User: Which sequence fits this backbone?
């Protein structure tokens, strides 16, 4: 990697802490990803992206800024990237997946806050996230209570925090609210960028994001093959990189990888022997570098074949229909698309469990692991009914609740192994 | 064929040998600071054709003894069937975790739950509480059984419960009644875990805590279902591992 010290310094990073973070990340990546056997060649691109995650990609952001582009950060899949691209901006996902500086975060947040929120604060207070520090605007969305109250505390800490309200039910009025919020967001984007969204620029934005989603949908469908052509860890990584890579380059790389996977499938080549226990993971998002659960699963004689998660199919399974000849009509299409997202903040939220069933069937999974982050009320609350419904439908389900620490790895492994033994017995 | 099972728990190591479907050898000892070396020493004395490891330390020995491993959950399912085939659920309270397991009509694993990451409400919890009250483990159970009523213990966390007990004692509470309260607390928590796995019918009670008569009696009362305890409830995991080595 080139020397980025000056760039990091200019972004105001705490170099010493940042070095420590990168060293930890590099080691984890080597141990968890590079140790996997029989990985597709196409993963080399993503290995490179990860090796330059705070380097080359940040340089691209800094260069984009120099050309007058605006960097818009967000913590949620409800923030439409299409709109950001339509003002020639760059969208980056900021969700944080490392147990970093939680002591610092806990000076501002209650101890019983989920790891994802704590991590975002740990990064901010520790000055170690170059994505966050590059942002011209940070979008905070009102999803769960934890996040929406945390944004009140985050506000004074970042340059420009923009709050986007979100509905919590799926009624026509709620859809109007969502559209109104997106309209306001357009206003914000136009004012910071000084650019007006046109039918043409918006269509272009939608096309770029659709292409990216189509590529990961293609990847998701290929994972139905047995033997699994790609590991759950690598697939998760791709879904994580989705949030911060250049959209066009990402799309091309995923499609290239999928070409390779198609050949693998034809030749019966996989990452685990045919007949290996296949699992779907459903629940809370796993942000970089949260690889804890998939690592434990895939080192316990099982392979993950799908993620029903915001970093996974919940974030990518719908495309935006390019329908309409005005910005307002296109905005309707965008609203329509995002209104489908079945996040657990909605009540009721029946389509989520239905989709988990569908995924299990089409990916030929043997069972589901429901993953909740400790203190994530919406997903923990939903996990009981989801488990009941899946078991009732004949889908064995294991509910796990954990955080970013490693201290419960042994106990989790016991549960995962026992679940695998239960599935084998069937 | 002689098949052996080794169950490396957080507090004790257990070894069982099965020959012609019969338990022919069993040994248990306290887990030392070096469970691997201890396991090697223990195994040097016995003869077997195959061995399977289970328990908290199973992965530790896997590479060194060159043996397959199974989770404790599966080990208890298999082991319980050796002693009784009529139980439809299993409760295991060991040194640092509690498991509740339900079985289907074939006696296979149906659902399971474990306590969270800490040792709340496990064998270790009882040990610490007995020490706070100045009892040995045997005295502790007998003292609880002798009490007419129980002091309510609200905390299951070993650390918080310890301070709760200390303050009860300093307020003049009867030692035996506090002991009964502690036993009741552990039983109500375990019964809750069993309810979570939708179990019914006879309960197979295993693990070191099943040696405690007071817990056994209270559990039967709380569940209103028969509770079966094998002659040595600590042997079940090792027997299960040995049985799986045979297959």
Assistant:
């Amino acid at each position: 990697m080139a020397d980025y010290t000056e760039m990091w310094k200019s972004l105001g990073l705490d170099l010493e802490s940042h070095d420590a973070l990168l060293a930890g990340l590099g080691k984890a990546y080597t141990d968890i990803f590079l140790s996997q056997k029989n990985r597709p060649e196409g993963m080399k691109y993503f290995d490179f992206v990860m090796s330059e995650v705070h380097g080359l990609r940040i340089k691209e952001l800094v260069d984009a800024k120099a050309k007058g582009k605006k960097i818009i950060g967000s913590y949620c899949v409800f923030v439409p990237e299409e709109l950001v691209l339509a003002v020639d901006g760059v969208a980056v996902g900021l969700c944080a997946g490392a147990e970093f500086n939680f002591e610092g975060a806990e000076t501002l947040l209650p101890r019983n806050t989920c790891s994802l929120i704590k991590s975002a604060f740990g990064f901010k207070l520790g000055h170690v996230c170059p994505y966050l520090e590059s942002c011209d605007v940070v979008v905070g969305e009102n999803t769960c209570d934890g996040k929406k109250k945390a944004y009140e505390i985050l506000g004074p800490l970042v340059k420009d925090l923009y709050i986007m309200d979100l509905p919590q039910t799926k009624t026509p009025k709620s859809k109007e609210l969502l559209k109104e919020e997106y309209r306001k967001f357009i206003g914000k984007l136009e004012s910071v960028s000084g650019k007006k969204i046109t039918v043409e620029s918006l269509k272009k934005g939608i096309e770029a994001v659709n292409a990216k989603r189509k590529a990961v949908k293609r990847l998701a469908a290929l994972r139905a093959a047995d033997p699994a052509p790609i590991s759950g860890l690598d697939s998760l990584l791709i879904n994580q990189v989705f949030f911060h890579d250049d959209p066009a380059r990402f799309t091309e790389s995923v499609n290239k990888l999928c070409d390779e996977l198609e050949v693998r499938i034809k030749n019966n080549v996989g990452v685990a022997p045919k007949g290996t226990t296949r699992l779907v993971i459903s629940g809370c998002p796993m942000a970089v570098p949260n690889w804890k659960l998939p690592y434990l699963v895939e080192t316990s004689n099982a392979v993950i074949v799908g993620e029903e998660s915001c970093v996974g199919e919940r974030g990518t399974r719908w495309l935006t229909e390019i329908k309409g000849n005005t910005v307002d009509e296109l905005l309707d299409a965008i609203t329509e698309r995002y209104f489908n997202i079945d996040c657990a903040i909605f009540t009721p939220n029946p389509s989520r469990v239905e989709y988990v069933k569908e995924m299990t069937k089409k990916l030929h999974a043997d069972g589901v692991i429901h993953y909740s982050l400790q203190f994530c009320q919406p997903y923990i609350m939903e996990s009981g009914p989801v488990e009941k419904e899946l078991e009732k439908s004949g889908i064995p389900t294991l509910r796990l609740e954990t955080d970013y620490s490693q201290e419960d790895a042994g106990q989790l492994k016991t549960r995962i192994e026992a679940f695998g033994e239960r599935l084998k017995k069937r | 064929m002689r098949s052996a099972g080794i169950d490396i728990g957080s507090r004790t190591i257990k070894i069982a040998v099965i020959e012609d479907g019969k338990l022919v050898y069993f040994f248990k000892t306290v887990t030392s600071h070096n469970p691997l070396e201890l396991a090697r020493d223990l195994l040097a004395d016995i003869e077997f054709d195959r061995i399977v490891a289970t328990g908290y330390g199973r992965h530790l020995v896997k590479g060194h003894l060159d043996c397959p491993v199974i989770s404790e959950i599966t080990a208890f399912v298999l082991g319980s069937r050796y002693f009784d085939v009529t139980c439809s659920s299993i409760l295991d309270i060991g040194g640092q975790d509690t498991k509740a397991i339900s079985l289907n009509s074939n006696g296979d694993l149906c659902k399971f739950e474990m306590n969270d990451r800490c040792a709340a409400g496990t064998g270790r919890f009882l040990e610490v509480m007995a020490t706070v009250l100045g009892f040995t483990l045997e005295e502790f159970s007998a003292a609880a059984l002798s009490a007419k009523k129980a002091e309510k213990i609200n905390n299951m966390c070993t650390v918080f419960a310890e301070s709760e007990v200390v303050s009860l004692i300093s307020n003049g509470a009867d030692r035996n009644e506090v002991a009964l309260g502690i036993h009741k607390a552990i039983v109500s928590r375990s019964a809750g875990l069993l309810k979570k796995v939708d179990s019914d019918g006879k309960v197979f009670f295993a693990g070191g805590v099943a040696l405690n008569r007071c817990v056994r009696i209270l559990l039967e009362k709380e569940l209103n279902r028969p509770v079966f305890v094998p002659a040595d409830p600590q042997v079940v995991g090792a027997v299960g591992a040995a049985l799986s080595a045979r297959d």
